Structures are given as structure tokens and as C-alpha cells.
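This is your field. Please look over both lines of this record.
***
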Amino acid sequence: MEWARCLENQEGYSTITDPFHWRNMSRPPTDLMPSLDLLVTIQDEFRSHFGWQESDDLSSAKNLLSTVEQLGVEQWKRSNRAATVANIQRRLVLREQNVAILGAAIDLEELTSALESPTLLIAADGAAGAISLLPDTTAERAWSRLAFIVSDADGGEGTIEAVKRGKTVFLHAHGDNENDWRALLEIAKQAPTPPPLILTHQTTGEIAGMHNPGGFTDGDRAACIALSLGIPLERITMLGTNTKEVGRWSGTTEKEKKLVKLQWMAIILQALGVRY
């Protein structure tokens, strides 16, 4: 694969020392870019593998952007979305917090263990639903530590509860999820406090007002986002991440196709140097 050759050709390459080369560019820190250029190459490769067209990804992304900016929710204005990124960076990066990313196979023992240390949480879409299975007091503590969820809007009840609680959502657009993100936006718009949104896409070009930090599934995209925000690799832990089994919190999915997608997730996590 092309991404593998890219890694081999980078003499002295280290996923610990090299992922933030883009920060030397003349960009605001709230402009989230892939921590590795090859992450965009991998996106091209999985599109080719599944026979998907980038034009469909681009159409969904542009429609998501225009829809969000036309809904009139103050929190969702472009300037406020940038401010949301800055707030997350202050909470997770400047305060040097450890972060646990909750994957679709998260179990209560893992989650409870994570809460025993001052660790903040990132949920891959429906994995947020595991929080609600905790005892009430513990669950509220977990919700308070949930920094954001990463969602392509098909996570089911866990995603919906996070949205209704006003938790920040990195909302992702791809070629076949336009109905899903439209439905989730309707729920979000009607929430007592609409959740802050940050919009992501998976196209090769830049889209003003959106970000492409890399990634394919919600789980590996969460890791890409964490690194893009500036969280050091050694402070990121993956929980409930299983590349051989469809997790309980995977939401609406076709099992056989999902298992193939999980192999692509493994490729991305390997490229990032993230252990799981």
C-alpha cells in the first residue's frame, strides 16, 4: 500500500516526534490537520477498496456545512465552532490531561477503571452509551469527563443521549450518511442546550469551516483528532478497541462489511503508532 511506502521512505521517522510538523505552517492552531500526510492517502485507498467516489464524500460534506450554517444556532456559527476547538485544546492539551478513547467494544470494567484516575474521555459515536449503564453517581462523573464524541451519526441511543446532554460532537460527513447527519442535527437543534459542533470530512481538498484530521471509522478518527489537537501520543489510551469483533456499541452496521472496516482501522492506528 502507498501509505506503507511513505512510512518506509521517511528516514528517522517517529510517530512520537514527527506528527506535528504541520504546526510550523502559517495556520491557526484551531485549524485541525492530519498529524501525518499519509492519512489522506489511506482515505483514498479505502475509497478505492470499497468502490466509493470522493465526489459523494464532497457532496455530503458541503451539504453538512451549509445546513449547519443555515440553521441559525448561535453555537454552530463558524467562529463559535473555531472557539469550540480552542476550548477543547485548553482542556485536553494545555492542562496536559490523559485521554481515554472509548471504542465500540468498551466494557464497564474498562470504563470504571479509567474513571479511577483523572482521565478525560472521548467516545467513538455510540460508545457513549456505555456510560449510562454505570451506577447513577458514577455515570454522572463519567459524563462530566466526556470531552467530546466523534460521530458519523449512526451510533444510536448512546450518541443521541450525548447530544441531548449538550456534549461536543465532531460530526463527520461521508458519501452515504447524509440522512443520518440530517436526523441527528434535528435532534441536536431541539436539545435544551444544542451541543457544540465541529465538522469533519474525508476529502483530499480543504473545505473552509471543516477539518480533515484523517481516519475512517469513528474509533480511529477519534485517535486522529486527538493527535491533531496536539495531545501527545503517550497520553492517549484506546479502550474497547477491537479489530476482530464488532462491538456492542457499533450502532447500525452490516457485520461483514464492518469487520473489513475494522481492518482499515487497524492500518490507521498502526500508522499513528497508537496502541490498542
